[in-house]
Fold each of these.
Amino acid sequence: MRPLVRVERLSQHFPLRGMPFARQRMVYAVDAVDLAIERGAAVGLIGESGSGKTTFGRTLLQLYPPTGGRIYVDGQDVTGAHGQALRALRRRMQMVFQNPYSAVNRRKTVAEIITEPLTIHNIGNRTSRLARGRELLDMVGLPSIFMARYPHEVSGGQLQRVGIARALALEPDFIVADEPTASLDVSIRAQVINLLAELRVRLGLTLLFISHDLSVVSYVCERVAVMYLGKIVEEGLNTEVEQHPLHPYTRALLGAIPRPDPRQRRLLSAPLGEIPSAVDRPAGCHYHPRCPLAMPVCRVTYPQLELKAPGHRVACHAVPAAVDDTL
Amino acid sequence: MPWIRELNDVEQSPLLDVRGLTTRFPSDRGMVHAVEDVSFCIRPGEAVGLVGESGSGKSTVLRSLLGLINPPGRIVSGAVMFRGRDLRTLGEHDLRRVRGGQIGLILQDPVNAFNPSLTIGDQLRRILRLHRPGLPAGGYDREISRMLARVGVDTAGGSKLNQYAFNYSQGQLQRVMIAAACLGGEPSLVLADEPTTSLDVTIEAQVLQLLRDLRGELGLALLLVTHNLALVAELCDRVLVMYAGRLVEDSDVYSMFESPKHPYTRQLLRSLPRFPASGARLESMPGSVPDLTALPPGCSFAPRCEQYLGAICDTVCPSLLATRTTDQRAACHLYA
């Protein structure tokens, strides 16, 4: 099957502000990432802060023009689309943001917020837009009395539902959800996770779900990609990645997650030190200074993201190549 | 000899005994009942988790203990007995010796907890001068380097002490704050308010392990305020659960996770994403947290409760009582 969205060596390098031209340095926020997302699939993208996961999502939607690489939608190269072409693309690709309070205009009512994409794209008239707005609210589980409310009159969980409704207004095929539950309380988080999982199946959405929390990703996605300093270091089915993580970074990340079970208490393993800055990335494999398996080659050459098990790609010199040749 | 009996009483009594703590904040929309009639104890060396969602009042409890409630907010009533003294009766001068001295404090956001215009060394020296005035003149810097080395911050021969908070990473700053809280004075109790919430998961693991190690070495009692039940499972002996300003459950950590007594605790535990994922749909709790300015007369959880009993839940606020089977306490009419 042809992937709905595919990126080839997608890069986003930001110049570091306040540096004289001759000494200009770059933040390698996203660096030569390859990823394909099949139609109808949900892929989770996880990583710590500074790993580049949010920048990747935004670059994929061309909220910033990529500084390198290509983006293909339905097999067509859409890199650098602008004007009408970009507008048409935005109808198909939408985003749900992390903090719903900063992602909406506080002076607008929920009705205005949800129907704004329809207004911008000149779809229907006022009456039909409002009808569509009520339909969208119903879809995300809110009664239509919310139409007249302002953002400060609704709770965080409810406002995130409004954000989801707005993203669905144009009937997109593809949604990037950037940490949609990170700002929500535990009891509300589950509601929003379930809503996204349901909508995805009901509307046949293709989803990129960005999160720092693998346990949340597992409830929505089948595949997961792990990002470290602008690179995808591991990618595969989430059952596979959760149960047989191959990259030493993924292992450290999984080992560090606290478990809600006092009988499973263990020494919390954690990689040494902290994530380096995306300006001064270590040479070779960016993870080598923290890696227990580092070999001389790791200091020199960045490992390719290769198939190391069926459907499971890993960028690590220390992981032996796939022995399975059924593929 | 009456003083001997008194001394023994102090030995056996809890380190911290909070009785009927009530804190309120006036607002435009009416009085916010942030903390209502909260009572609990912490024994010497015990690690207690205080969990709840945002707005449940857990941080207000912690701040009330140290008298850190800013007007117009006010502690309306209650006693905070610490080593036999009521902290609420102490003046500001005496309280300052307790804060950071006998009771350490770790805050959520290490970046904003430090003064940006003073070096880290200066800030730590101030703490030591206040709480350990007996150190010799050159002893302060040596002591600070020793403290920071213990929490894994390399001071690079002292030069790092002359740097400011922005020169440190978030994880390092949280370690410095832990050093100040646990090693700065001579605390027997450390209060930690969401100590790892602003940190990434790998740094969080390092900080949790550090807290565990320090607690073991120094025999510290800990009150950990968090919304993350997993942290409590990793670190605590006992759990207090708060909902809408009241304590609803008080259990040892094993019983809480295995057979929670209050319906809120039970529903909350079921809505946690498990890892590895079970594959099943996540159970979610209906509704949302009530408005603290207009709490219902009965149980605040009644509208979301799946074991709602009827009129009694809407009219009578249940008090925190021992349940019949175990030593767990729950504020629910199911056990009346």
Amino acid sequence: MTPAIRHWSRENQARVEAILGSYPERRSALMPLLYVASLEHDCVSEDAMREVAALTGISPVQVQSVASFYTMFKGEGVGDYVVSVCTSVACYLSEADVVLGAVEDAAGASSGETSEDGAVSVEHVECIGACGGAPAVQVNYETIEGLTPEAAAALIKWLVDTKPDVVLADEMQQLFGGRRSFDWGSVELEGAIRPVPAFGLLGSAGEGR
Amino acid sequence: MTDKILTTRMDAHPSDSHTLSRYVATGGYQALAKALNEMSTDEIIEEVKTSNMRGRGGAGFPTGIKWGFLAPAEPRYLVVNCDESEPGTFNDRQLAERDPHQLLEGIIISSYALGVNHAFVYVRGEYAKSARRIQRAIDEAYEVGHLGADVRGSGFSLDVTVHLGGGAYICGEETALLNSLEGRRGEPRLKPPFPAVEGLYGKPTIVNNVESISNIPWITMNGGAAYAEIGPERSAGTKMLSISGHISNPGNHEIVMGTTWRELLYGLGGGIPDGRALKAWIPGGASSPWFVPEQHLDTIVSIDDVAANGSMIGAGAVVVMDETTNVVAVAHRIVRFFAHESCGQCTPCREGTSWMEAVLKRILDGNGRRSDIDLLLDISDNISPGLKWPPAMTTICPLGPSAVSPITSITRWFMPEIEAMLAGSEVGLG
């Protein structure tokens, strides 16, 4: 393992190993490595970008150029829970702007900001592929569909009050959601532990290939 | 006659349609066995050509013909596009979450046919659950030998890697997707060269959509001719439509094309809630020009009919607007989307989409000017000369011209409404 990440947790080092082994060329691992780095550092910090640069054999500024192109690599100051309110066309037609307002009020943070206690970052986002269950939001990239403004406010309060270690889509949907885009099928017990999409990060799915 | 291909398993077995055991118990992986044991790679490609299936990602290019362009150099790659981000689409999400083995079997058969030993599935970052479900299917497939060094004892080897995106619509464009997969900014490449000749890492690469690949097991099992018989000519097979907006039964509907829009919206769709009147609908995602009831309600839902009427079926996203809808506000929302998602490489798109967003905003805010309509059309014409459909382009990829669709739609069908908004503003009166 490269010395650049010797200080990372063993778990995250193992994730890095598995990811690098999945691609014919090192640079391809850049985006998944940025996600692991943001688990390690709680966000895509300057250190994170330097370390990922060392892992992929490119310069830190090249890493920054890529990281800044995408919306999901969050920088310093991101909250524990990123609440993404879809305000794209289908959700807009279903009063998503009112849901956004309710979320902002409940969180005490406007879109693009983080609440003072650092718990919740609010953002309005473009289509998240939940149009049949509009209006929809994501918490750390786990989807909840069919929200009313009241339910959206209650969701924020629940996040702040209970501070769940893992956010589970099915649990939030059951507590606060309504109409879904389609039958989700069986309940999933895997979710996000940080404002990082829960893929290949929790030790079951995504590891080792 | 078959009327459903892709959603039968998930409808019949909601609790476990995503698992290997249910997939195998309902006939899964028999097509792979047939492909490996009974068919040559050329025969599989021939069946896909015979099926006349047109790519489900939006462009509608025949999948078998695309496969035929794959250059002989090695290694070659298959990349499955699960970056579903067109506003209004959510059908790939359902296919990935509810029947990932159907997709995976399609990937394995396609890879075998194309001489691919490493396939990738590019999943949009917001679809973490879809990515988890696909990965679990991959893990299960490795365990039973459907993937790995010697697929079912055939000597054919295949690895599949799921790659999670970072939140960028443009990565649904196939060359932007390849750049992103290479660890670069998701900026589209100039074509040619096309990916089939120079794609991932400069090697021959086929990029296919989730829904297209999910059809491959059925085509392999039942033959291309049987697939071609479903639906109207040149719109063969079934199509997943995502219906949303002001509609009583929103959701994904797998249909055989050839019905009318009236049948679709008032039959499957259940009509407009609360008995309100239909004002307009978007037939194929935010990029497509809108349809209106007087002109289009009795036209046919097929790839060619929608194209003949000046729009596209695209990836199958139908967004419905009732009589209460402020069409300028909807156009603003859609243009704002494209302004946000423009990668910034091409000036007409980068600058034009932002200016159109600003002009629409000031009309909405009551500060519009009479000249704003001409201004919007002029900016549009600089992005997409002649405002034709399919659009001409001054840009590398179709994102810029997509932002023109809502402008041409509202100025074509709702001019009195825009003028009324302008007349209501002091600047407009001056």
Amino acid sequence: MSKQIKIKKLGINVSAIVLLYIILKSAITFGLITRYHQGIIIFIMINIILATSLNLATGFLGQLTLGHAGFMAVGAYASAITSIEVRALLPNMPDFMLLIISLIIAAIAAGIVGVLIGIPALRLRGDYLAIITLGFGEVIRVVINNMRGLTGGAQGLTGIPRIVKFDSVFWVTVFVVLILYRLTHSRQGRAIMSIREDEIAAEAVGIKTTHFKVMGFAFAAGLAGVGGGLYANYLAFLDPNTFNFMRSVEILVIVVLGGMGSLTGSIIAAIVLTIMPEALRSFADYRLLLYSFLLVVMMIFRPEGLFGRREFSFDGVKEKFFNKDKIQEKTNIS
Amino acid sequence: MYQQNKGDNKLKAKKLTLLLTLMVLLATVLSGCGGAAGGEPDTIKLGVIGPLTGDYSMYGTAVANAAQLAADEINAAGGIDGKQVEIIAYDSKGDKTEAVNAYNRLRDQDKIVALIGGTFSGTTLSIKEIAKADNMPVLTPTATNGEVTLDAANIFRACYTDPYQGSTAAVFAAEELKATKAAVLYNIEDPYSEGLAVAFDEQFSTIGTVTNYEGYTKNDADFRAILTKIAAEEPDVLFLPDYIAKVGVILSQVEELGLNVVAIGGDGWDGIEGDYAEVAEGHYFANHYAKTDESAIVQDFISAYEAKFESSPNALAALAYDSTFIMKSAIEAAGSTEAEAIITALAATDMSGVTGHVTFDENGDPIKSISIIQVVSGEHVLAAKVSGK
Amino acid sequence: MVLFLQQMINGLSVGSIYALIALGYTMVYGIIKLINFAHGELMMTGAYFAFLIVVTSGLPFLIVVPLSMLLAAVFSVVIERIAYKPIRKAPRISALITAIGVSLFLQNLAQVIFKADPKIMPELIDKRPIDIGPLQISTVTLTTLALAIVFMVILEIFIKKSKPGKAMRAVSEDKDAAILMGINVNRTISLTFAIGSALGALAGVLYAITYTQVFPTMGVMPGLKAFVAAVLGGIGFIPGAVLGGFTIGMVETFSRAYISSQWSDAIVFGLLIVVLLFKPTGILGRNEKEKV
């Protein structure tokens, strides 16, 4: 692909994102979207971060991990404690700077835990890895509950500065998705995907599988931590029981529905599955029943999810709708 | 040629899937958007948030039911300044995020004037900061965690706090039961349980010895190891501040192991005579009111509730009933539905309800006495009324 | 010393239930190499079946138990045919996710049908503590212990000596060869599921009697811990499941009694990690090389 076309594609994609931002932001400023809707949009974006990061570990790397909520928890608490302490020490620091510091700490903390868990756990095959990560998720919760002095234990952590608004969440989400997109479309990304396809063959070809597995896993964990940090600084209150196995499963359902291996799929599925419980409040009793049913049905009939491994890009839309002639030409020649 | 057809079909399938997904998306977004905006200007809307489904649905439904009962009675007597009261209850599922969404929805879509909720301390804490920023008048009937009303002029509660309950239980154990040694067994994953345990431990340590201070997690079912360990220390009293589901199991095992100890609990025990009357026999718990209290207001409430909902009201129902009436008199006294006016009126509350006489201290906590109930032959018997810190 | 022995008895009591559940896990894993995440839910199903039977008919323990086991066995075969058969050839991840889905589906189905608050199991066994000197052991504990051992022995004999048992071993060794030898693989797998679930159901009924409560999520933690037990003892290996079950029961009880009750769950999972890192085939397991 020539450099010109690459720049053109980049331009279209960037403008589309900025346009989306402008639309949403004006809707908020002019009161078209109530705070209730704003809250939902923020939760959608946090779920996008969680789902895309899980997708990296499960969809692209092929390692089923059931403790993603645990990494979110580590990030959330690390970020919350950082925000509280730094705000107390330097009360005049502007919000966005505090948030950036807080999120970086969240990512690092979660990433480190990811490495610590990954190194032993990733030595194991699929089933055992799943159970171990489930166990870790539970252990992290027990640890948080027990460390009352630091985390407030079961009482929860209050007094977190509310420094997260729509703007910050939007751009952080865009940033995260961007990083993941670049990663999965790079050499490292291809190495990661080769591990998913056939680990032994990848090893035989010379790819350092352990290195990439741990790196991918830790990266996913770190990003989940960022999601947790945003959550903590938005809600201003944390409670360890939010980050339980069901939360990990809900994120997994998003990834499975969207397509393991498609970032776009995760984004769309995150939007749908965050809005649905709100829209269908009357069916609240049956929501989890529906999710689990969905999981089984998807695995049997359409394991690749909605998008499989394909991605959606704005320049792709343009080509499809505006360059139909060019496509016709290409197919006619064959 | 064959290749081209396949390619076409694949492209079509791709487009179709995309289109379908976008449509579903649009539909869900739009359906979420509608919402009940407006409504008649002549209704006063009060929001209720509680766990209407899930593990603790019995508590949430009790609160919602009782609030509705109170509203019906208020409306039958002419409403508030001629306007009808409408109760809008949303399910928090006991989840913090859901509670926040429910609150936002009540505020933005339903335009409530005041909130009677959350039901649990955890969910109430999660909406505290947002409600504070909104200056929304909040009267939680049942959230007992100490932090709920701190630093928030707009938040009041109708029930006494966990710290108050825990320390009062300790005073009762020492003074009425003459206990010198006590063991505490609590749920580390539940802020309610922990709050009570901490307060009991602090108070009892000043007047006796706490022999064991043990925690368990919400998934635990086998307490024999811990109970055997506690039994070896021979405490007089065992403090079990948790809800019926866990307490019942623990007491069954206390019975099985043949432990000779008196158990005390908090208001989470209310209703324990339902399934666990045998094993709860002779033990005590703190409650908000006694069903055997003969005063008219209590008995009228009980019969009205039983008539409407075909079940006996628990303490949470009584508190929610009182809360609705407290809110009603505050709005009446304020003479408007403006937030600040309601808050000022709430602070000046001075009325008697099913759960006793209510006035609020500077934090928004009620100044009330605690009824200690003993389970005798499956009935609540009032053992003592203890008050003061 | 007395205290220590009493705690040992407590450990046996907890462990025997884990052992029964672990037996089911290990059998299914042995034959289709899949961790049946939903196994804990089959235990829960058995408990609910027993509850329904007792509440509607008042039948005694000796009839309720086999009846619940039978119902659970049939139920599990239906699930196996609907949900697990289609994904037999699918990649590991799909199979695992399906199992998780089935597990959650059953939990939520029970929640929708029965509501989440615990149902109280009526007394099926006269729960008296029997005194042996200064120690106490409950009748329920003795029953559970006895049943666990009896079934382990029966199972071993069945697998080693009977024809269906040999078929099970053959399928678990090499499925394709077994087909070539004329073994009806589908039937064998279904039978394995049935037996495993029957044992899980038995554990569920005993659990409900011991801890008095039946509720939709009752199988989650015991299921997880029983899985740890099966792995600890050597997954796919029947005596391993029983050994693992009792070991985990002891570990849990002693960490509650002597370390801290709050950390006991973390310790059990920690044990899992240690085992998987240093001897993944478990205490009694054999070494299997991964084939390319």
Amino acid sequence: MTDLERRQDRSPVPSGWDYAPAPEARDIVTLQERYGLFIGGELVDPKSGEYFPTLDPSTEEPLAEVAQAGKEDVDLAVRAARDAFENGWSDVSPPERAKYLFRIARILQERSREFAVLESLNGGKPIKESRDVDVPLSAAHFFYYAGWADKLEYAFPNRRPKPVGVAGQIIPWNFPLLMLSWKIAPALAAGNTVVLKPAETTPLSALLFADVLRQAELPPGVVNIVTGDGRAGAELVKHEGVDKIAFTGSTEVGKAIQRELAGTGKKLTLELGGKAANIIFDDAALDQAVEGIVNGIYFNQGHVCCAGSRLLVQESIYEPVIEKLKQRLTTLRLGDPLDKNTDVGAINSREQLEKIKELVASGEAEGAEIYQPPCRLPEKGYWFVPTVFTNVAQSYRIAQEEIFGPVLSVLTFRTPDEAVEKANNTPYGLSAGVWTEKGSRILSMAQKLKAGVIWANTYNRFDPTSPFGGYKESGFGREGGLHGLEPYLDFDESDARGG
Amino acid sequence: MSRLPVKKTYKLFLGGEFPRSESGRTYEAQGQNVARASRKDVRDAVRAARGAVDKWSGMTAYNRGQVLYRIAEMMEARAEEFADLSSGRAEVEEAIDRWVWYAGWADKYTQVLGSSNPVAAPYFNFTVPEPTGVVGVLAPEQPALGGIVARLAPVIVGGNTAVVLASESEPLASIELAEAIATADVPGGVVNILTGHHSELAPWLAGHMDVNALDVGGADGELPELERLAAENVKRVVHGRTDRQSPYEIANFLELKTVWHPIGV
């Protein structure tokens, strides 16, 4: 019996012992059979005539039919946004604009349970995450940006900020409501109108959000929501009536958008992929660090662009860290996203599951050593066991490419310089983690890591006041904080001392 | 018999040195033979610029400010030469004053552009601007001196290094500027200035995978193509203006880094 097996034998969760199910009731969510597009303040049938089913990824059962926006539909949405911008929304005084956003924040809080359940149903994420992270942070974003709406001159002194016009926003499926909030809250605070394209697989919380806007009495056309696959997003990017594109998603699509917008003068912000290093020094508080490693990569099934997917462990503590990590993995509860005990939910889609499987197979083929805790997967739905790869070389695909799943690649280092070198050895630069009890080392590492967010002795923390965004191929522009307003504003600096 | 003046050979400024183009080519501009850089010169310049990033961005802000101020000092000493190579004395004085203005920003922009963020949890959280890295600059054709100075100063004051394509039609002021910079304690490789044909060189700079940002303010035509090439590694594309000075011109070439740490005992 190995040491690990002996420890597993003493595991706090003995084999054969199960948690009693603690399912969250789903009856708070009332779904329509079919949803139209939210254009000009109402749900309308798509001119395309096309609908597609949206699923519960934990059961593969269809939840509703959703419209596929075509070119004509996107055009109508952009026109509605333009009309609202020019005839009404621009005349709303900034303090009144703020009050609409405060209202939205409050309604999100009031309907938090409904949103949390729906988010888990449609996205597959554990209810405790949607309940404790996605929904409260969404409300907080609206509350935060509400207060900026009538204070923009203080945020940008001497720059005479004014809205850009119509913002086209395209969001991913990993945090559907939260990404919607990151996009819509600053856009509205800055005085713009919006056409938002939710992700193909997770449209339902955005469509429920349309009902929040109705309750908030937001003027029609200020926010428009067009559902569909990438074709709808492409139409939005290309549309001449859009003044600004904000995109969160893969680096590959982000580059295509940047190319598409070349020479158009449209404003662009990109929040793209990542391959973050989570660096553990030998003086770190190990139990806390292990929790940070787990939170870093298994939070939201690893469907997180800033996930700590490359673990860099100082060689002298490699063995205890890996042992504690494996031990911890045996206690992760994978299963029904609506169960309040669940730590790891369903993979968002079949397509994503295939991508994860393909990359994991490449890791094994290239020679990495795989560890997966004993785990029963549900028979239906899309699932993947939390996975750790050791013996990983920097050149392996699992150390280079974003997997966007619950898969951790472990590398080692000896010196701080080597850790920096390895951490920065990637085209990405979204985030990084550092674990050490030595303050001066934290600041030195924070300075040297090429990433937009550095979590020191913590990981995967988010807040509306805290700017988020990447270096290098992880994109440009920031979301959150004062800095998150800038992409949604034009400035008149004509009196800056000229030449 | 009158003395025959010693004429200057106009060369590239690359890695702190003044080499000819590796291609051995020149072209005639403003009555002089000027080095006509090749795409390999572009790549060499990017390598020199990348190599200088750590040293330049690692210097204290106070120190960088003094180096920029010294560029102004070195230009003042050559004001007559600059006047002959540009539109005249007014352009020169403005260019010198622009260095002085940006020199003063070196130890201030982080306070204007950064923030400490009141997150709703027990964490200390702050945001600091940092250099993006290597910046490609397409200097405008005119003003010959004012253009390159207005675009270069905000790039390097932020700790970035630069590869500049000089004005193609009036490159002599840029080389004169390189000579001032070379004697101003600017570490080699921080500023690299290439003369030559923009249409030949700009695409290689725009598509280079080790360039972090591209100022296309001086591009004439070809803009969509340059921006498309820049997307290859998600470059920050800046439409720099020569007619103003602003801390936000510096901000265009900065990344924002946010750091979290728990508060506890």
